[in-house]
Structure formats: C-alpha cells, structure tokens
Amino acid sequence: MVTVVFLLGLLYVVFAAVLIALLKSAVLVVLIAGGLLASQFWFSDRVALFAMKAREVTPEEEPRLHGAVDRLCALANMPKPKVAVADTELPNAFATGRNADHAVLCVTTGLLRRLESDELDGVLAHELSHIAHRDVAVITVASFLGVLAGLGVRIGFYSGLVGGRGRRDQNTAMIVAAVVVVSAAVYALSFMMIRALSRYREFAADRSAAQLTGRPSVLASALVKVSGEAGRIPVKDLRTAQAFSAFLFAPVPSGGEGEGESKLAQLFSTHPPLQSRLDALERISADLGES
C-alpha cells in the first residue's frame, strides 16, 4: 500500500508539472477537480445512503445490529458510527464517511436475514476497520489524480481547441493535444493503481476483522455466503448497488469480478478474488491457532 501511494504521489507531481508547463488554465482545472473531490469527500455518507435507499435505525428498531456494533466498537476502542439499514435483498454491507466521527455503517436487510450472529460480527468488524483506517478518505484523495486527468481529457476534447473552430494556431493545437495524451495516460495509470490500492485495503480490513473477532473462519464463512447468494439476487437490486460496488463488503456480480475472471480482469477489480481472500484468512487462522 505504501508503494502504491508513493507511486500515485509521484504521478501527481509529474502530471501537475506537465499541466503547468503546457496549459495556462491548469490552475482552473486543478480547482475544478479539487472542488469535485471535496464534495465527494464531504458528502460521501449522505450520497451513499441516498443511492442505496438506506436509513438510519435506532437501537430500538435494530437491537441485534446495534448490540453487535456497540460490542465491536468497545473492543476496537473506537467511536460508534451511525448505523443504517438498506431495504434490499442483496446481502452486503458498506461503510462510508470522511472520518470516524462522521461515519456510517450500513447493512442490508438481505444480509441480516442470511447471516448468523458470529458471521455478522465478522462483516461488521471488516467495515469498522475501513472506518478506523479512514479508507474512504484514502481512496477519495487517491482518486483526485484520476478525476483531474479525466477532466483534462474532457476539456481537451470539448473545448473546441482540438480539431475545432476554436483552434487558434498549430502550436495551440499541439499543446492541447499533448495535454489530452498525457491526461489519458495518467488517467489509465492512476485508475490501475487505485484499483490495486482498493484490493490491498480489502485484504487489510479482512485481517483487522479476523484479529478483532479472533474468528477468521467465521469471516470466511460470511464471505462465501454473501458471494454465493449475490448471484441469486434480482437484477433490480444488483443495479442499484453496482455504482457502490467498490465500497461493499463483497463486489456486486457484473460478469467481471469473480473467481472465473482472467488475470487481466483482476487488475480492474476493486476486490481481491474470493479464493485469495479465503486463503489469506486461512493463513491468519493458522497464525492465531483458531480451532
């Protein structure tokens, strides 16, 4: 993870230098991209809950869920996040929010119906790990370069400077074309690195959850259940969750992510393959001496 973040930072510096050297409006591009990322960073919890049609629930409404979160937060010595439930058959969970004091942990009704209490603990511990380690903030900041590069490509294509009437001279056209090419290359590189970072964060959250609960095998059982049941969920529920697949406990089936995917497809995945996660949990179980 440190290597990926370092490479992303290096890419930031190089791309910013190229933008400043080639494009006079680079500052404007950076400000626009920064504004978009700031909005995503600040309002991510509200956007996610709205998109998943989730609502906050009280301890009286969901005593089992709140009890589990209370217990795990006490074990982890961390603030309790808001607790929400999304009314969907898709068995899954996610955590969002810019920090531990402004976080939301959401589970679906499908998950609550399908998992045993100890399996639910494993999933909740996984999501609490994302909150404790500020993974949403990490991915949001890491995504800034991709948004910036994508914006650079769009500005180049739609500004009218490339191949359009707005082209003032050949030099201007060459400069903007260079920005488009560099932006496209940077976008591709940052996209791949962010996906790699996301997969590493999932492994890290699995490890933290296994250590917190002391039951890696239970988390593995929950993973198998959630991944297996997702394929039998109505298409409508799957489409609702597709946009937030990267933040979910297990990825939403889309024909790309899964155990049968190619090595190339795995590079584009936000989550490690199921078997890789199970193998990692098995090693942790052996280390912990779980019976």
TrEMBL record:
GO terms for biological process: proteolysis. The chain crosses the membrane at residues 26-43, 136-161, 173-194. Binds 1 zinc ion per subunit. It is found in: Cell membrane. Pfam families: Peptidase_M48. InterPro entries: HtpX_protease (IPR050083), Pept_M48_protease_HtpX (IPR022919), Peptidase_M48 (IPR001915). Its cofactor is Zn(2+). Its EC number is 3.4.24.-. Keywords: Cell membrane, Hydrolase, Membrane, Metal-binding, Metalloprotease, Protease, Transmembrane, Transmembrane helix, Zinc. The keyword Transmembrane helix applies. Residues 60-283 form the Peptidase M48 domain. One of its GO terms (molecular function) is zinc ion binding. The active site is at residue 127. GO terms for cellular component: plasma membrane. It is a multi-pass membrane protein. NCBIfam families: PRK02391.1. This is Protease HtpX homolog. It comes from Streptacidiphilus pinicola. The gene is htpX.
